[in-house]
Every structure is written in C-alpha cells, then in structure tokens.
Amino acid sequence: MASPQTVPCVNINDEFVQIVSLNVKQGDFVKNGDVVGTVETDKSLIDVAVEQDGYVLRIDCAPEQKARVGSVMFWLGAAADEPVPEVISTDAEARNAAGRPTAKARAMLKELNLDPARIPASGERLTAADIEDWLARTGKTGPAAALPSPSTRTEDSPTVSGELLELSAEAAGMLHTVTWHRDHAAAAYLELEYDPKPWEELAAHYATQQKLMLSPLLPLMAFRLAALARERTLINSTIVNARRFQYRPVNLGFTVQVGEMLYLTVVRETQDMDAGQFIAALGEVQRHAMAHKLPPQEASGATLSFSSMARWNVSRHIPILPPQTSLIVAHAAPKTSGKAVLGATYDHRVLTGFDVTQVLLALSRPLIPGMTGTYHPESTY
Amino acid sequence: MNLNRNEIKTALHAKVVELAQALDMDASEVTDDDILPATGLLDSNAILELVVWFEAAYDFPISQEEINIDNLGSINAMADFLLSRKG
Known about the structure:
The structure holds two protein chains of two kinds. By secondary structure, chain A is of the alpha+beta class. Helices cover 27% and strands 23% of the residues of chain A. Chain A has helices at 90-96, 103-112, 128-140, 169-183, 197-210, 217-231, 275-290, 353-364; strands at 3-6, 16-22, 29-30, 35-40, 45-49, 54-59, 66-68, 72-77, 187-194, 237-240, 243-246, 252-258, 261-267, 304-308, 327-332, 340-347. In chain A, β15 and β16 form a beta hairpin. Chain A is globular. Chain B is mostly helical. Chain B has five helices and no strands. The interface between A and B is medium-sized, with 18 and 19 residues.
C-alpha cells in the first residue's frame, strides 16, 4: 500500500516551509533514513530523511515551492507499480487553480496564509466556498489530517482605520496550534503546589553521582512524566473522529525557548530509555534547537509534553495543547516563594480532572524510574 | 577566528554577560576561574546556549560526554579546552 512522505515540521511555529531541493525521481528506490532533500524556514534549513524503504511512486511537490507542513511530498510503495491513492496532485491543483480568486477568496487566502495554487477551483474563479471545501477535505481525509486546517470563520474588519498585515510563518504556525486547541480539544487546566526541595535534592544527588555539569532537574521531571505514561496510558492518547487514538511510543515534547523562538522539541521512543539515556537524548535535542538545526524527527510527533517557565520566575503558566495530544504539564517555580507549581492543560475529552490530579501528584514526588542507589526520596516526606 | 587566549576569554566573558542579562542577572564581575554553574548567574538552558555558541564561534564540535566541569566549567577551562583541541 502506498505511503505518503509528508512535508516535515521544522518547528511548532512554522505552518509552511520552502522546498529547497528534492533529489529523487519517480521510480527511484530509497531506504529508511536516506536524505533526499532539504526544506527551510526563515530560521532553519533541515534535511528531509525518508521514513521507510520503498519506490518513489509519485512526487507531489517541487523545489522553490512553499509547502504546508504535513502535506504530501511524494508517495512510496513496496513495488514500483503500486497505485497511488486518489488525492489531488499538485499538477492537477495547479491546472484547476488557473482561475483568479474572487475578492472574498483573496481575503480568505490572505487571512489563512494559503497558497492559491494548491487549491482547486470548481469554476472559472477560485471562490471562498472552494477554499472552505478544500480545507474541510484536507482536514478530514487528506494527508494534512495530522495538522488540521485553521478555522475558516471570517471576522468583520474593525471600524477603526488600519491595515491588514501578513502573519509571519511562525505566527501562522502558532495560529494553527491555538486553533486546534480551540476547535478540537476540550481544554481544561488545573494545578497544584508542591515542595520543590525533595526534587532538587534528588537532582543534585543524581548530578553528583553521574558527574553532570548541568542540573538534571527538569529532564528528570520530564523523564518521570514519560514513565508515568507507561503506567497511565490514557495520558498518551488523543481523540480522532470520536474514537480514542492510543499512541504506541511515548514521544516526549519539551519546550525550548531560543531567543524569540519557541520550539517544541521531541525525544522519541522514551519508553525504551533509562534516565541517563533520556537526559543525553534531551541534551542533544536542546542543542540542535539552540543552533536552529532541529531535524524533523526532533520537531514533530510529540504524544505528551512538558514545559517549564521556572527560568523566567513566573508563578503560573497555562500552556496551549500541542495538536493531537491530551496533556502538557507546565512547571513553574518562583524563586522567592519557596514553593513550586505543577500545572496541566489537558483535553477533557480524554482525561478527567481526577486523572490529571493523580498524574501531577505522582510527578510531584521525586522518583527516578529504574534508578537504584542509596538515595531514598520517600524518606524526605 | 583568532585563537589568542585573551581574546577567547574576552569573547566568552561577553557572551556570559549577554546570556545572564537575558535572565535579568548581572554577570559583569564574573571571573575567569568562577565555576559558571555554581555562580547562579546562568541556568542550565543558558549554559547550554553558551556551549552551542562556543561550538559555532570556534567551529569545533563538542560531544555530549565532553560537557563537564573539567572542560567547560569556567571561562579558563573553556579557553584551555579549545586551545587543547585547536591550538
């Protein structure tokens, strides 16, 4: 069965990327991990690695094209003559979109930062209805389902004079994330205070034992959260078309602020790691983010997330849910209060307040899964 | 890129001050021998930013295992580490 290789997400704030190069052609055989092209945003240039072995059946994009994250770059199959599913190709779209957009369609394209060449027109002109149909179609059945389309609700212009400005790619990406949170999740938030000292002592003990230069406090807390997902699988799932989608891997999202850029970095397959491996993997991912060189597999696919704003000394932090996840834990630790806060934004379609409270209570107790040694955190209670 | 020891240390000092400033901290009086993680002026994220900047500025890769106090704990240690690799 043909499988799509989709446009990778460079970071959570970029809804579109520029195809810089694509070095395969129809009929080529590629192997999992082969680098076949590059894409870029304003901030980063990353390689595109193939995600499985197979023959290139059809290519749906071209260099210099601006492409939506999650849309199909090309199709792969086990045999070179496999049929490709019936979706509208870029060529077909380009032919159909020959008609100019109507004024209302132009406004909608501008508002949603869409490329008209990708949207087929039903008549001589591309209409707002055509755009709405395309959004609904790709959002429900197309490869872009992984990244649902922004809302098509239109708003009246303000009565005060001003001008409409284009969103940056980062702002458009953030709009996409916030729109998923608003339109799909039943988002709720709760938090609890906890005494940060036992966790700090455990992290200091671990750092000494492992001769670490950097505090492992936040990585250890994130690792504990990932381990909790193995016991409480509900937190590692989401709702898709009124059914629960249980993720197999635990891919831990971890926010990294680099200058003005906010990345949701991802450590994949954490269920197979011990604490040391997780800390090393997260360190690598953080360094890639700080160099603005996150490969796609480290910038997408989070199934559960952890975010801390302790370094900014904030007392409360209510994060937006990353698309198609049900829980993001928010850590805050105001320096002068002596208290720390674990908050959680969660999707109430999947989790109840009780579920989340149990997770936060467990997370507030210092524990390194799989660690053996002389330190007994429970004795601090 | 000049690999004069004093110039390396001056550049490192300026970067430490800049990173601390982003956290609303004043690191202008940090000395070349101060253990940076122990000063409280830079958190783990900022120290990692310093390491990433150091790699890029002097074009030498640092492995995860090399991020330790002996190699990167102070401005002097960082300058020594760089010069031992490229000097």
